[in-house]
Amino acid sequence: MAPTNPDYTTYTTLSFDCYGTLIDWERGITADLAPLLTHLPPTHPFHATPKLALLRFNALSEHLWATQPKLAYDANLTEAFRLLAQEVAQESGIKGPLVSEEDLQKIGTGPGRWPAFTDTVDALKRLGNRYKLVILSNVNEANIARAVAGPLAGARFDAVYTAEAIGSYKPAKANFEYLFAGVKKEFGVERPAADDGEKGTKGGLLHVARSLTADVVPATELGLKTVWIARGGDTPEGYGTGGDYLKLKGEGKVVFEGVFQTLGEFADEVDRQFGEKEQKE
Which InterPro entries does the annotation name (predicted)? Predict the structure, then answer.
């Protein structure tokens, strides 16, 4: 499915979405939503299709991104879960809270403890031998610090930019403008030109992400080239919270420098290209 890969050896810096790309966001959220399901009748659709709970939760969280952009992500998660529980209780005619305050607060700490994908840390170690590595995440400072020290331990990051520091959430263009300013100041990497048709401009920045709506679409609009780590999101059954691939592709909103199912596969291609280049030198 992926086009012929460009020359990744000409880039110097990779920026990453974290949750959904490096950390298994959907698995973590689904586990933290489980207490809600225990109070619902067996006939509730969330039992037959747990992804429905995930998708509705994500919609509420994204609504909060847009309406309360300065709300830190831990509070965003807690409030989205509270709203979901209230909504489901009202629809089901259930009186009383469906989840405890402990459950609500727990989900707010999730980004610091949710598991990394099994390929993530090894791939980051290999990519770190070739590039500067930067996180651009919608999470808050405390949770990303715990994730870097915990599930992502062993990987090196040269910079971490969060929604809490920026004051808005992706897909806001301000988050990518913050990224451009940061990598220029810290690494001397110039921001991409929206009308630059060259692939892999030397010294450039490449954004690596799973979410189409939060990352690939706004990055593409700003001229930032992307690699899509699909993780099954290239098929309708695997869309999850990342966006409708076929719809966005048909609208011309997503353009990739490469498509890989896992970060490990991307690292394999990078290693292959650098290996061939080094043999010729």
Answer: HAD-like_sf (IPR036412), HAD_sf (IPR023214), S-2-haloacid_dehalogenase (IPR051540)
Q: Is 17 a catalytic residue?
A: yes
CB 13 within 8 A of CB 191: no
Catalytic residue among 7, 17, 74, 103: 17
Percent of the chain at pLDDT exceeding 70:
94
Contact present, 266 and 5 (Cβ < 8 Å):
no
Checking phi first, is residue 243 left (phi over 0); if not, alpha (psi -120 to 50) or beta? left
Bridge partners for 133 per DSSP: 14
154 three-class SS? coil
Contacts of residue 67, defined as CB under 8 A and 6 or more positions apart, other chains included, come to: none
Task: Specify whether the CB–CB gap between 29 and 110 falls below 8 A.
Answer: yes
Q: How does strand 159-162 pair with strand 11-16?
A: unpaired
Question: How far is Cα 138 from Cα 262, in angstroms, rounded to an integer?
Answer: 21
**∠ Cα 54 44 67 (to 5°):** 35
Model pTM score: 0.90
Q: What is the pLDDT of residues 186-221, one digit of tens each?
A: 999 998 875 444 443 345 999 999 999 999 999 999
What is the spatial distance between Cα 128 and Cα 115, in angstroms, rounded to a whole number?
Answer: 20
User: Which among 205, 199, 156 has a CA at the least distance from the CA of 180?
Assistant: 205
Alpha-carbon gap, residue 182 to 215, rounded angstroms: 17
Tokens 């609504």 -> residue: 63
